[in-house]
Every structure is written in C-alpha cells, then in structure tokens.
C-alpha cells in the first residue's frame, strides 16, 4: 500500500511539475524540462519548425524586394521660378498636331507625366483627374486644359494616346514627343522620368516618373501641385480658384 501511495504521489508530483512548466513560467524562464514531461519537447519541435518557415519566408521577401527597382527620387523645385511652362518647347498631341509653349495659354492647365503601359500610378491619377472634371461639370471642365504627357514615345503613338486618355475623360489631352523633346520639357517642368529595362525582354520595360500634377494659371505661371490622393474637396477648390 505504501508503494502504491508513493507511486501515486510521484505521479502527482510529476504532473504538477509538467503543469508548472506549461503554466507556471518555467518554460518562459528557460528552465530545463524534467524527463517524463515529453510533450514540451514535441511542442518545441513544432515551434522551431514554424520559426524556420517564417525565417525562410522573410529571407525570400527580402531577396524579392532587393530585386525590385528603387522608387524614383523626385526632384523638387526649390522655387516656383525653377519651373518654366512658357519657355519654348515642341511636342505632338494625340491628333498628330504640333504643341508648343503657347498652345495651352489662356486657360489654367494641369500637366501630368506618365505612360500608357503604367500599371498603377497613371490610371489612378488619370482617374482622379477625370473625377474632378466630372465634379466640376462640362461647362467648367471646358475652361481647363488637362494634359497627359507620355514619356514613352516608342510605344505611345498619337493613336494609342488618344484611345487611352479619352477612355478616362474626353477633355483630357494626350501629348508626347521625341526623346530629346521630352527631355527638354521635363527639365523645364522639373519632372523626373527614367526608363527601367527588363533584362529578360527588352520590349517589356517600364518607366519611373514623377507622380505630381503640375498646375499653371492662364498665363502659364506655375501655381502649385495636386496629387491623385488629395481629398476631392481640396482638389475641386484648388481648380475652382484657378478658373
């Protein structure tokens, strides 16, 4: 009988120790497990396996991000005088007509630089500007120039531009030019863009570019910027003040 009681008492002590490991903090304190608990060792095996999987996933994510092109560092005009809308330039619009620095004078103008193969920034920004024009109504929208300047002349022909921009709103005007013409305009407007080649397919390149919308008054003077993520009320107020 004593042997039985001793055995039962030993079992109770063993269970108590294991419960203390689980619930009493010994596991948290890093104390060694007593032989016989068993289950914590199995639990640790699963914990270590999970940690290994998470570590592998994080390493894979870090490698993927390291292979992506760095986001462009957008140059900022130090002063509004650094942006010149009225200096001579030549581009071509979506109707194959010549566009110069004088074309858009007489109306406030929104300039946005991008390209038709852009996966996110361009459709988001054009969609925002289309929403602003709809909110203003046709009468007021007609008093603005909304100009989309493609920095990808190799793929964005006048026909491609016309089909692309008018799908957002009929008042949006698409323009582009030769590489040299676009470089000159980008410099005058203080806009960044750069081609990002695809080493596996030369025809499947992308473009990094500024995402800001430049605003000019009816005299061609730079008056500020808008962003696609600006609240619509702010954008509408800004545009109405230009009219």
UniProtKB/TrEMBL annotation:
<keyword id="KW-0186">Copper</keyword>
<feature type="transmembrane region" description="Helical">
    <location>
        <begin position="43"/>
        <end position="65"/>
    </location>
</feature>
<dbReference type="InterPro" id="IPR036249">
    <property type="entry name" value="Thioredoxin-like_sf"/>
</dbReference>
<dbReference type="GO" id="GO:0046872">
    <property type="term" value="F:metal ion binding"/>
</dbReference>
<keyword id="KW-1133">Transmembrane helix</keyword>
<feature type="binding site">
    <location>
        <position position="118"/>
    </location>
    <ligand>
        <name>Cu cation</name>
    </ligand>
</feature>
<dbReference type="InterPro" id="IPR003782">
    <property type="entry name" value="SCO1/SenC"/>
</dbReference>
<keyword id="KW-1015">Disulfide bond</keyword>
<keyword id="KW-0479">Metal-binding</keyword>
<protein>
    <submittedName>
        <fullName>SCO family protein</fullName>
    </submittedName>
</protein>
<feature type="binding site">
    <location>
        <position position="209"/>
    </location>
    <ligand>
        <name>Cu cation</name>
    </ligand>
</feature>
<feature type="disulfide bond" description="Redox-active">
    <location>
        <begin position="118"/>
        <end position="122"/>
    </location>
</feature>
<keyword id="KW-0472">Membrane</keyword>
<dbReference type="InterPro" id="IPR013766">
    <property type="entry name" value="Thioredoxin_domain"/>
</dbReference>
<feature type="domain" description="Thioredoxin">
    <location>
        <begin position="64"/>
        <end position="243"/>
    </location>
</feature>
<comment type="similarity">
    <text>Belongs to the SCO1/2 family.</text>
</comment>
<keyword id="KW-0812">Transmembrane</keyword>
<feature type="binding site">
    <location>
        <position position="122"/>
    </location>
    <ligand>
        <name>Cu cation</name>
    </ligand>
</feature>
<dbReference type="Pfam" id="PF02630">
    <property type="entry name" value="SCO1-SenC"/>
</dbReference>
